[in-house]
Amino acid sequence: MIYNSPECLPSLIFDFIIVGEGTAGSVLANRLTEIPYYQDLVIEAGPNNEGVLNSIVPGLAVNLANSIFDWNFTTTPQAGLNGRSVEFQRGHVLGGSSSVNGMVYTRGSSSDYDRFARITGEPSWSWNALQPYVRKHEGFVPPVDGRNPAGEFDSRFHGFLGPIHTTFAALLSPSINTRILAASRQLQADFSFNLDMNSGTPLGTGWHQSTTGNGERSGAATGYLPSNVRARPNLHILVNTRVTRILQTPGHHGFVMTSAEFTTGNNQQFPRRVLTASKEVILSAGSIGTPHILLHLGIGDENELAKVGIHPVLHLPGVGKNPTDHPLFVVGSVLNITDDADFWGDLSTNATLEAEALQLWNKNKTGPLAVFRRFDQIVWARVAQFILPNGVDPSSGPNSAHYELALEGSATSIASGSSIVSPASRGSVSLATNNPFDAPLIDPAYYSAASRPGHRERVYPPPLINNPSNAFLEDFLRNTSSSNAHAIGTAAMFPVDASWGVVNPDLLLKKARGLRVVDASVYPFVPCAHTQASVYIIAERAADIVKAAWAA
Ligand SMILES: Cc1cc2nc3c(=O)[nH]c(=O)nc-3n(C[C@H](O)[C@H](O)[C@H](O)COP(=O)(O)OP(=O)(O)OC[C@H]3O[C@@H](n4cnc5c(N)ncnc54)[C@H](O)[C@@H]3O)c2cc1C
Known about the structure:
- Belongs to the GMC oxidoreductase family.
- Its main location: secreted.
- Its EC number is 1.1.99.29.
- Helix content is 21%, strand content 19%.
- The chain is of the alpha/beta class.
- The two termini are 23 Å apart.
- The structure holds flavin-adenine dinucleotide.
- Flavin-adenine dinucleotide binds next to helix 1, strand 13, helix 8 and helix 12.
């Protein structure tokens, strides 16, 4: 049941309080309420996702930026981007970032997960051990244009019964696809065809899989919270309500954090209320929201907290440190394909065509709005050892990518959304003030560790030049890169006895009891992937960890 006000809540006694019903929070809300005698309260700052057309229709997702469904964050000025600040989108709605994201479905490499296991000393975070969760969240469905997906993916690596639909985009530019696949055959090596980039080895050129199904976005709020789950008598979802702090619960020995302070207001003047969980508070507020809440409750670097007037209650200097994001830039070329009519080619600039596309989507959920962008192939590749900063490889292993090219084409142009996917740079999330309604300082520190651009390409928009110098390319990257919205790592898990890190491998906050973190912030390294799949994986496993901890 969804509530807009705490006054309407039927019960004030809950086993679990989940903070943030985003990608991970929705998984937990579903899985924990499978146990009928658990009463779960979920507190989400954003509104309900139901009926939000821009979220439902994949091709309209671009309209969600800078809306009420976005936290509207901006980074601090980035030295690596020649002093520019860039937008830093985060979902502010049920389903969180999975309700606003680009729906690309990629899991990363097996060595990404094996590195999590190695770093945390916990083998159950390895690729092989996680296989049940890799499949559990996924429900692969046929593409919306009805074609047979054989030859475009390997069914052995997919789940077919899970709540998150995945599939291929409807082919909009078949002649581009033919040419890209022909180029991959011709070039081989780094660009060889890879039947399934979600097998654990992403490298090569392969078909783009997305979290859509039947022409609609499939996100955590639609997949994990369909109406029958929302109707469960033990699930209580409070929307438009912000958690300001987690509080120490009186009457216990030690450091027990099971109370959440929240408000339906949007500034310090509004009254706040406190509810206490009888078992745990689970922080799933994402890689910005989670450290923001932890820092406001006085958990972080005690010196930094004191500087903004917050009384430190627990010295955990890793909170907010280590955010790692993928910088994104676009490289493109003009094309002149004459054997492709490309009916929808001018969609983004032609209002009549756009109206026609929406009519088609409304009729049978097909057409160009049934996909987010016009891209069918992605390349994942590595750079030569000598290009790496100081010769040190920041990727998790030889089957991991250093960069990604998401190829988007029409008859007249091809563009590559290019990302550095194993970045060496690490930033920070910190507090500007002690007011929880003020946005945190988000510093992803893009390109702060890189010294040379990763690869050479013709660049577009103009000037088009054939032999750009390294200095030109470096300036191009610094002047045009933005966030690919994949930040992780701000409450990273490390071994139980480690002096660094924020949570233990069971995701419980270090040096405390009663508070667990389950979201993208717990990964100590960013996978070489768009990050939602790894969040579904971690959240599914976390649900089992929680159930086991309370012996359900
Ligand atoms: C614009 C965009 C495009 C992306 N594109 C892709 C893509 O194509 N493919 C891909 O794999 N990944 C993509 N990602 C990344 C991926 O969506 C995220 O990594 C993942 O969804 C994060 O999940 P999470 O549970 O950690 O956080 P979120 O899903 O962001 O959930 C956090 C939730 O907590 C809520 N919250 C925060 N603070 C508070 C508070 N104080 N009180 C109450 N609630 C709070 C938020 O409103 C939100 O609902 C994209 C992300 C964005 C933003």
